[in-house]
Amino acid sequence: MPVHRSGVTRLHVYTAVAAVLFGLFSLPGAAAADEPSPGTPPRGSAHMGMGVIAHDGQDGVPTRRSTQTEGVDVSSHQGDVAWGTLWSSGVKWAYVKATEGTYYTNPYHPQQYNGSYDVGMIRGSYHFATPDTSSGAAQADYFVDRGGAWSADGRTLPGAVDMEWNPYGDDCYGKSQSAMVHWIGDFLDQYRARTGRDAVIYTSASWWKLCTGDYAGFASAHPLWVARYASTVGELPAGWGTYTMWQYTSSGPTVGDHNRFNGTLDRLRDLALG
């Protein structure tokens, strides 16, 4: 059967379009949108402060003050921790990563959480928030059910929610400032409903300003744990006139990030008791 000229023309056009599309999808960087970009850490590996030093840097270490109490925070990166050594060095409290999103639980949490308690420390758990993966309430439930609960034993601190730079993508997890404030409020409300305590908020002034618009509405109820790697704490997020805890370095003399509680050990016990 003879082929009409119009059919041949259409065939050539289709072939050319297919070739162009093939070339585009073969280019570097044309991977599926849900695939992580090169250099992105695996989900679950995030820990307190990993974005702070990348965005804010580190400049000096503060002078030790007698009215402040030394602490550390740890995650799976530290593995089994020698808590006796930390206690002997002057560390009296610790926060341990329990969960991330609704997809990750720290496998070292039992050793780290119970081990710190066993040597005499006041301890608590923290949750690395990923607001782009599930709701605040869902993540609060996941956290409480997997190590983030609170008990009135005088040695357990209220859970902390880690709100910081997204190590897996967009700094603000793809959320507008108002949507981020709503997400955080959702987490905090559910945590209080489940435990009877107001969660600690961990963040940096720079991230808080960028991603919440420097929202001041949580300051009256929630203790601030501020991250700033410098010789002074510097600017605080809006609403807080002072900080409760300060993560001042990611490269301390012993394991984990180092922190100061803004008060004596007796005041830290008061926070644990609620």
UniProtKB/TrEMBL annotation:
<dbReference type="InterPro" id="IPR008270">
    <property type="entry name" value="Glyco_hydro_25_AS"/>
</dbReference>
<dbReference type="InterPro" id="IPR002053">
    <property type="entry name" value="Glyco_hydro_25"/>
</dbReference>
<keyword id="KW-0732">Signal</keyword>
<keyword id="KW-0326">Glycosidase</keyword>
<keyword id="KW-0378">Hydrolase</keyword>
<protein>
    <recommendedName>
        <fullName>Lysozyme</fullName>
        <ecNumber>3.2.1.17</ecNumber>
    </recommendedName>
</protein>
<dbReference type="InterPro" id="IPR017853">
    <property type="entry name" value="GH"/>
</dbReference>
<dbReference type="InterPro" id="IPR018077">
    <property type="entry name" value="Glyco_hydro_fam25_subgr"/>
</dbReference>
<dbReference type="Pfam" id="PF01183">
    <property type="entry name" value="Glyco_hydro_25"/>
</dbReference>
<feature type="signal peptide">
    <location>
        <begin position="1"/>
        <end position="33"/>
    </location>
</feature>
<comment type="similarity">
    <text>Belongs to the glycosyl hydrolase 25 family.</text>
</comment>
